[in-house]
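Re: zinc ion structure - here you go.
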Amino acid sequence: MPPSPREPREPREPIIYCARCNANTPTRDPEIITMRNGMPATIGYCVRCGTRKFHQGVGR
Ligand SMILES: [Zn+2]
């Protein structure tokens, strides 16, 4: 059994506010991106309605 690689601090389904659900919902396929100003952001899709979400910052 290979040693498990260190997982980055990245929740699988970070809770991000969804404008469509008007609530904080888990996020499917989250991806950490870096914006032009160098700040990290999280993008993904709402598990409830599938709307694309954008959250400035990483994780919560
Ligand atoms: Zn939603």
